[in-house]
## 1
Amino acid sequence: MAIIIPENEIEITAIRAQGSGGQNVNKVSSAIHLRFDIQASSLVDIYKERLLKLKDQRITKEGVVVIKAQRYRSQEKNREEALERLYELIDSVTQALRIRKPTKPTRSSQARRLGSKIQRGQLKTSRKKLSTEPGSDGS
């Protein structure tokens, strides 16, 4: 299911990129800083809830998604990447969670398990030293 977020809900600002890169990095604001407020968005409530429950470092305590994109030298490519990462994050919570069906171990698997436990126990008892009776030390 494709989710469309109105542009007015996403705050995008251009900032200077970090790291080496020469004069281009120092002069041009090519990195993108994207902010998306989950609570104020037009997302369905269940998706908002799931997003807020995520243990993701990009989501602040106030429920704002902060994404910084600075991989490319072009501001437009960084903008596209930031939006793509936002949509991937939202897509991750739109998938319906698969319900686990509890199963029971088969009889044969239980028998194998118990058989291996018995065998292991016998191996350990065979390693023990045989105890000698007191006073029968050969004299």
Note: The chain has a mean pLDDT of 80.
## 2
Amino acid sequence: MTRIWLNHWFSSAYNIINLIKKEEKDFYIIGSSGNSNSVVKSACDEWYEEPVWNEQEYVDYCLDFCRQHKVDIFMPRTGMIQISERKKEFEKNGTWVMADDYEKIWTLNQKDKAYELFKEKGIGTVPEYRIVTESAGFQKAYEELMTCYQQLCFKFVQDEGARSFRVIDNHQKGFEALLNYAEVRISYEEALNALSQRDSFPPVMVMPYMPGQEVSVDCLKTSQGVIMVPRIKGEDRVEKIAYDKEILDICRDFYEKVGLEHPCNIQFRYLDGIPYFLEVNTRMSGGVQMSCLASGINIPNIAVNKMLGREKKWQNRQEEKLVSYVEAPVIV
């Protein structure tokens, strides 16, 4: 019996766990979260509520948890960067960690450092950007970039799930504003006022807003080659699986020049017909189940078996499909 632990994931881990266990009888899933009512609980064989720790204490907690519960494979989301830095300590205790090398993970999770890496290695195209840490810098960046682009956006360099992402929209006024999704839109004056409330703040990236299609590519390196399933995100819940050669070539180039051993998600956004790099998430995406269903490739299951030294065959016919999802009630 292989004991697998997922710590404090998004609710999408519910789907990831079900995919891991699909057609497998020897996978035992342990889940944990700071949220006692997490829907992920219902997909697990064993469940624990996590305490609140600071970053370094949390890694120690994870080491102890793996020892106490005889974890064979640890699939971290929370604390992944810090956990990867101490991966050898887990391995000494007999736990394999589904996380790539610390240096790569740290770089790819720092948006500015990742963009510098992509430019240095000539991988795809990154958007023009400015990094600011105080309101005067934000004002200067806004003025400079607005001379070249119609609309701008910004987010904190260290971000997850685009929580801090905002589009600068100076037209969000009056009745029409009530009909739009206002939570990601903010006027320049509102943004400047909010940032001015601090003498300095963590690095913020200011860049052009790209209104074109967003493409999310779920990837995994295997002995057969790199699995790449691109999803074009729509305004509604329908996503299109489409294998654009330019997108696939950029992903291949990334794997040749940087490469990751474990699942990742590469995101692009179009502006004037050009696919720009947005980011590389060094974990499975929240929509990986969409890619798995449409392609017939079980990425989570293949990834776990890879860690166990088992080669699972897969084939991608690169068929274009539309895929969606519906809400389903689950007893927690």
Note: Residues 2-99 form a domain with the Rossmann fold fold (CATH 3.40.50.20).
## 3
Amino acid sequence: MLYHLLVPLADEYTIFNVFRYLTFRSGGAVITSLIICFIIGPKIIAWLKSKQGAGQPIREDGPESHLLTKHGTPTMGGFMILISMVFSTLLWADLSNVYVWVVLLVTIGFGALGFYDDYMKLTKRSSKGISGKKKIFWQVAMSVAACYIIMIAANDNDATHLALPFLKTYLLDMGWFYIIFGCFVMVGSSNAVNLTDGLDGLAIVPMMIASSCFALISYLVGNAVFAEYLQLHAMPGSGEVAIICTSMVGAGLGFLWFNAPPAQVFMGDTGSLSLGAMLGSVSIITKHEFVLAIIGGLFVVEALSVIIQVRYYKMTGKRIFLMAPIHHHFEKKGWSEPTIVIRFWIIAVIFALIGLSTLKLR
């Protein structure tokens, strides 16, 4: 909004020239979403408490301590993240950019699905919301639509090609199969973040770390000069999604203020499904899908722990982990919640550094 209002005035008033710069607008997006989250946070939390009563239903098979420490805490806190992100993006982004709208609509769509899932859990007073099949169906439907639009918006030479880390010039042409691959990335990312969201502050900080990395990546691949210097595959127009990534960072910082142990609110599926999908869609736009698996390595580990646990149990009737996702395994082993959360944050930083190193090691 500000971009379209003030950039045309730059020729007459040079001070408005700063709105041409993506870096300035990205910084403005961080601050704006942070302030919005601080302002609306207490009001949304109070409203959620008044509506939810007993708060988020706690898993009966989960760690016993959760029945005491988590009882009464409201969920759907991701709503405040979405409001802050969307408003900040609309304020600072170039709204003529199709990629901005794709990521926004994916984020809002998955957020609405998560909101409905949270609502069903609350009305049923159960940790199980809508059925897995229905959830996957709508995730796949939204992902396929988003991937198709991204393909149409991209250059003909880039639309169906997959870039690989550590390889300078090689592009794998996947044809129309790229939509299926992109759908897998988006749905997988959404559910991986959802599985990670099990302890106070556990998911939001790695999400901010990953979003910061992809803000940088989108800025670099959207800039022809930087992309050529780093031997990245340039994606014209993709730099604008950095605004969404930085808006997420600001909103995440604001949400962490209320989600830090002991949490006043949980993000719920409203936040985790939408943020994971947002990250997946940005990785597809920037052609860094495999780098997402590295930068978001913590989310991958959490998801794999569930897959391995389920498959091994079906095959042998035994469990590898005391409980899945893996953060609950360490709870069962006696680790305190803050210890698990902070150590997982450290692991997320390590994965992010490894992922960013692929930008130069080509």
Note: The longest helix spans residues 22-52.
## 4
Amino acid sequence: MIDASHKQHIVVMGVSGCGKTTIGALVARELGLPFTDGDSLHPVENIAKMAAGTPLDDADRAPWLEIVGRELASSANGLVVACSALKRSYRDAIRAQAPGAVFLHLDGSREVLGSRLEGRSGHFMPATLLDSQLATLEPLEADEAAVVIDISAPVAALVGDAVVRIQQRH
């Protein structure tokens, strides 16, 4: 567990189907931090748009990213939040509110991601939007506080690796 005096802001990022919610919750548990699924922070209009199969544009995302950043910044002892954070500008918007945020990118091939989305039910994000998300995804840059994990690893190994690498950043 991380020293509670050091406030942790961790954003578990990646395209739909990469495991942000599952991995994020497990990483949060291992670090002794609360977890929030960023999807629950979307304005109602965004959810309706995505459910209809329409990709969000930057204007749609702006209020959501501000909410995500505020949630991180206002957390008493730190927080792990799942948020796609696909573009550098989105990550910058989050960092504007929570400057110390570390981004945990769950990276995977289109084939792995597609098969995960096809097997998922009850989610507002249809598998048909995967290609638009992959086209939008901007790789993390060297000056960003980040950890990249390959999602093809077994979940326990993936979580263990993520926790160790996050702890090494502090």
Note: Residues 1 and 31 are 5 Å apart (CA to CA).
